[in-house]
Structure formats: structure tokens, C-alpha cells
Amino acid sequence: MISHRALLLAAASWTALAGVAAAQTPPQQREIVVEDVIVTGAPFGVTDRASLLAVDVLDEEDLAVAPAATLGDLVNGLPGVRSTNFAPGASRPVIRGLSGPRVQVLTNGLGMIDASSVSPDHQVAVDPGEARRIEIVRGPSTLVFGGSAIGGVVNIIDDRIPTERADGVDGHVSAQASTVDDGSSFGARLKANAGPLVLTVDGFTRDSSDYDVPVFPESQALLDEEGETAGDERTVHNTSVQLDQYGAGASWIGSRGFIGVSAKHVDTTYGVPGHEHEPDPLDPDAHEEGVSIGLEQTRYDLRGELTFASGPFSAARLSAGWADYAHTEFEGDEIGTQFFSDGAEGRFELIQRERNGWQGVIGAQLLDRTFDAVGDEAYVPRTDISEQGLYTVQRFDRGGLGFEGGLRLDKRSLESLAAERDFTNVSASAGLFFRPAPPLFLGLSVARNERAPSEVELFAEGAHVATGAFEVGDIDLDSEVATSVEATVHYAQGPFEFDLHAYAANYDGFIDLRPTGVDDVDSGLPIFEYVQTDAEFRGFEAEADYRLWESGQRSLTLTGAADWVRATTDLGAAARIPPWSVTAGLEWASRRFDAGLEVRHVGEQDRTAAFERPTDSYTLVSLNGAIRPFADRNVTVFVEASNLTDAEAREHASFQKDIAPLPGRSLRAGVTWRF
Predict the structure, then answer these.
(1) How many whole angstroms separate alpha carbon 432 and alpha carbon 396?
(2) pLDDT, tens only, 303-347
(3) Residues 485 and 502: beta-carbon distance below 8 Å
(4) How many CB atoms lie within 10 A of CB 68?
(5) Which of 143, 211, 278, 441 holds its CA 20 to 30 A away from the CA of 31?
(6) CA 371 from chain center: how many Å?
(7) How buried is 168 (Cβ within 10 angstroms: 0-12 exposed, 13-18 middle, 19+ buried)?
(8) Residue 666 contacts by C-beta under 8 Å, 6 or more apart in sequence?
(9) Beta strands in 280-357 (DSSP E)
């Protein structure tokens, strides 16, 4: 969904001015703090205005008014970020035109241990409703997370394992409803002290029906190909979502650190839209029933930190997670294909003590996971996956000039009935930055990242209905190597703030899914093969805020953002690359009332790969408002009207763009209570 962008941009503008401490202080006591601290990709912490990484942050205030949506739809529309938009129940982030195994989705710095990267119709086993903060890192300079983060990282940070004691009892309750899908959601979390023991409990539920669209769901391009005409239907069928998630945690917090454990269970059922025609009037019962997916995951986590009063290291951190995941595809009431993923991941880090501007981290990461599929569409065999990684990131900052660099060694082993492959990869990055004047930060970084092929890219062999192809892997694929350069500009003085990231990446051995021109005899689907070629990605992201007027706690701010990416391989244009976009907004903020107007224009995309249809440009207009009716400002009532013009909008990065446009005009309202 794009409709939430106005609220998120308004909150993000505040985030750029508010520090981490501000998020823990009642709003009426807040002072403007210049910088925010980013932990994803830099475990020792780097402020947003001193980072070579391209980062966006959604903090607790942003998330309190954000729509109840899957992760990909929530972050969709941030600079350089789109969504696979496969269905309201299944969407992953697309970063700089890259998705799937090239974008890491994390929870508190650890992988999801699910099957969401295997196929675009697989949901990420986490709901943003549980997050206290989400950090989105764009680009490959994230050596802490290995080659699978060659495109970027989305890190969901919760407080289920507390790291600080509560001030007595604190918590959060939220509820909202939306008209376009008859949606509703409710969530709550609570944290309380029992001496040094801090306990948490949380729960979240979401329910929505099939969503409405402004036009007939099938695109005109698809209708023309099939010789059909548009009907009167204005609903994308089989897009309902029912989700329940609950968890609990406990930490023992002392003067030198903490140790804690948590448990979480998520259970969701969602529909997968498909290409459905009207029933045959001679045989009205002769049509396929819709496909729905039932997902369950139980996860246990352990986290701890021990600080040192002296010595070369200031702290040691340990985190580990174990998960059991099951994904069942139902064809009507019949069980179809099932996917299973279970395993464990751990990370240990030593944080170097800062000395004369020098910071750093040394870490190790281990992963052991088993993926399996059973059923007619089990196109990937059972695979045992193990990974071991060693890394270090170092930074020297003396104010006017500094540098940053990192090095990582990875070993990855994939063993299946088809074959066994082992990969050893080395990734490195280096960057320089300087501040010619206090408001200005300039940086230039280079990186070389290696990514081992995934189990799908190596071992796939079968019909994959989600992508509309018979996919064939290649057990002889080599590691994918990306060499990139990125320029960074941060500027903040007075009422004006500006961020720019321009990048270029060359891929040696880019793994691409390409058509063979032949159809599979049994399934009738076109055969696509995973091949390696060279590729070039070029692009930029820019954000700017200008406070037109300010008096006390009242302000009027003009916001803007733009992004563009162009991707070409030796075999032609890369598939599903998002077109350029420009966003402009006007935001009013005050002690009791906030309001915003946003206009977002997304260009057409006619640089397409084989068998891919182009998409038209579109413009979305949204209005939002929030009021805090009580003196303590802990209660916020919010409302948003999205896609006011009821425009037809199709996300080019989606496999479903020709049968499932984005939602039409909608009204969303809710309330949050923080205590």
C-alpha cells in the first residue's frame, strides 16, 4: 500500500530531528535533538548525519500511526524502496531494484529463518505491529550481515527482550480500521519490572477482506493480449488476511548488562490472487478454487550484553534465535504444497572501546537451517544450509575527516539430493568522509560483495505457479560479485535538511531468471532458467525538508523525495525494475494537532525484460491528520484518506501487477495509547 506515505514522511521528518532519547520522553517534554543513532550495519552506533550508509528509520511514533500492513507494503515508497506487492498477505521489500535473497529481512539483527525469500507469495514471518523501530539500509555496504545483504537490509527491532528497565509499567495499545478492505487491527504490549527482572508481553491481531480497486483488476495490456474486454468487477478477489501474533520475554538487567529470552508465535492465513475468469455458463462449477496460504512460526530468542569498565573492548554481545516454520498452500479445502524451514542462527560481537575517534566491532555469525518442500509444486528439494562468517567494521572520525572500512569472510554450504555445493566468499568495503563545514557531510565509499547462490537458484526444477514459470536452477552457478561505489551528501542547517545518495554497481556473474522460449509439456508453463550474466545498476535517492514557518511547537514543513534506478544486463533490461518517483508533501505540526498533504508521482516503466509487460505512470494523493486530545498527549487519534483521486496504480516490481493493482480510495482511522 502507498496510502500511508504521508503519515510516514511526516513522522520521518520528526525523526530526523529527534534522538533516541526523545523516543523515551513524553512528547510535551521533548527538546529538538539534532541526530539519530543508527545501529543496523554499525553495531557501535553511528549518527544518521555521519553515516556513509543510506538509512531510513521508522521509530515508535511513525509506527503508531502506520497502517496495519505486511512489511513490504509498510516501507513501500520510502526513497529507493518498493514492494513485491504480491498480495496484502505477502510482500517483501524491494531495495534499489533488488529483492528476494539479495535483501535481508532481520529481527533484532538475526535472520527470519523462514521461506519468504524462496518465492514472492511467501509472507515474511514477522508483522511490523510488533516493532518498536525499523531501520532500512539501502546498498551493499552492510558487511555485518554477509553476502545475502548485497541489496540492503530491513531490520525490525522490538523490545520483547528488554535492554532497559521500565519506569514502573509502560505499554502501548493501538486499534485501527480501513474502508478499502473492511480491515481492522488491534495490538498491545506491556513491560513491567520485578526488581532486576523485566517482563514483557505483547499481542497483535489483524483481519481484512478482499480489497477494492478503481478499475477492472486485469490491466489493459493483459486484456489486449488475451483478446478480452474489461468487466465491471472492482475487487481483487482472494486477498483477505487473518493474522494473530503473540509473544513474551524476560530479562535480568544488572549494572553491567543484561541477559534475556523471548518466545513468539505467528499464525496467519491469507489469499493469493490469481487470474480467474467467469465460470463457463454450460458448466458453472468448472473453475479452480482460489489458493490460500496458512503460515505458522514459533520462534525463541536469546540476547545478552556484558559491559567492561576497562580494556580494549567496551562490551560483548550475544544473540541467538531458533525457529520452526511451516507454510501450507491450500487449493480450496485441499492441502497442496507445504514448505518447511527450521534452524538456528547466532551472532557474537565484541565492541571496541572508542579511543581518539576510533570505533569498531569484531564479530562471528553462525547459521544452520533446513529447507524442505512437499507436494505437487515442491520445485526445490530438501536442502541443508550452513553458514559461518567472521567480520570486522572499523571507523575513525576526528570531526573534519575520517574513514570507514570493513572485511568479512563467509563459508556457505548447501546440500540436497541434487548436489552439494560449498562457497567461500570475501567481501570488503572502504570509505572516506569529511566535513568542510559543520552543516555539511560528504562521503565516498566503495565495496566489493560476494553472494553465494540460494537453494532455489541452484536446485529449482519444477512448476512455480507464483511466478508463472517452470523454473530450472543450475548447480554449477558461481558466487555473484558486486563492485559498487556510492557518494553521500548530508546537509542540515537552520530550516533546511538534505540527503543524497548516488550509486553505481557492477555485477560479475549476476544470477538472473531468463526465459528459454520453450514451454513445459506437463504444466504448459514457459521454462525459465537461472543463468549468470554481467549487470549494471545505476541510481540515486534524495530527500529534503524545509521548514517554511516555525513558532514554538508549531511548524509548517515542505517535504520532498525522489529516486531512480536503471538496471541493464548483458541479456537486456533487468526484470521488474521500479520506475522513477517523486514525492512532495506539506506537513503541519503542533502540540495538539498534526496534518499533512502528500502527492506522489511514479513514472511509467517501458524498459522491460522478455515476457514482461510495461506499466503506466500514476499519481497518488493523500491527506492525514492526528490529534492528541488530552494534556499528557499519550493518546493520539489519527485519520488518513489515501488515493483521493481513486487512481489506477500498478507496482512494476510485482509479479501480480497485471491482475492486482494497488488499492483504491480509502479512509483509515485509529487510536493509540502510550503509557
Answers:
(1) 10
(2) 999 999 999 999 999 999 999 999 999 988 888 899 999 999 999
(3) no
(4) 32
(5) 441
(6) 22
(7) exposed
(8) 3, 178, 179, 180, 181, 212, 641, 642, 643
(9) 291-307, 313-331, 334-352
pLDDT for the residue 6: 43
Residue 324's closest CA among 157, 125, 119? 125
**Residues paired with 330 in a beta bridge:** 292, 335
Q: Let me know if 47 is exposed, middle or buried by CB neighbors in 10 A (0-12, 13-18, 19+).
A: middle
Calpha distance 583→343 (Å, rounded): 41
630: Cβ–Cβ under 8 A, 6 or more apart, which residues?
none
Amino acid sitting at position 364: A
How many C-beta atoms surround the C-beta of residue 288 within 10 A? 11
Lowest mean pLDDT among 374-378, 474-478, 607-611: 374-378
3-state class (DSSP) for residue 512: strand
Q: Is 276 a residue whose pLDDT tops 60?
A: no
Residue 232 in this model has a pLDDT that exceeds 90 = yes
pLDDT of residue 288: 54
Which of 69, 80, 83, 187 lies closest to 126, judged by CA?
A: 69
pLDDT in tens, 241-275: 999 999 999 999 999 999 999 999 999 999 999 74
Classify 299 as helix, strand or coil. strand
Number of helices (H), then strands (E), belonging to the chain: the values are 5, 36
**Distance from C-alpha of 583 to C-alpha of 418, rounded to nearest angstrom:** 48
Residues 654, 86: Cα–Cα separation, whole Å: 6
Alpha helices in 383-505 (DSSP H): 455-459
- Provide the percentage of residues in the chain whose pLDDT is more than 70: 92
Q: Is the pLDDT of residue 280 over 60?
A: no
Nearest to 35 by CA among 17, 9, 53: 17
Give the HSE-up count for residue 639: Cα atoms under 13 Å, Cβ half-sphere.
6
Average pLDDT of span 384-388 = 97
Amino acid at residue number 187? G
User: Quick check: 153 and 41 in contact, CB under 8 A?
Assistant: yes
Confidence of residue 358 (pLDDT cuts 50, 70, 90): very high
User: What does the alpha-carbon distance between residue 378 and residue 381 come to, in Å, rounded to a whole number?
Assistant: 7
The enclosing H or E element of 71 equals helix 71-75
Pick from 90, 155, 87, 141: nearest CA to 117 = 90
Contact 541, 501 (CB under 8 A): yes
Mean residue pLDDT across the chain:
90
Burial of 161 (0-12, 13-18, 19+ CB in 10 A): buried
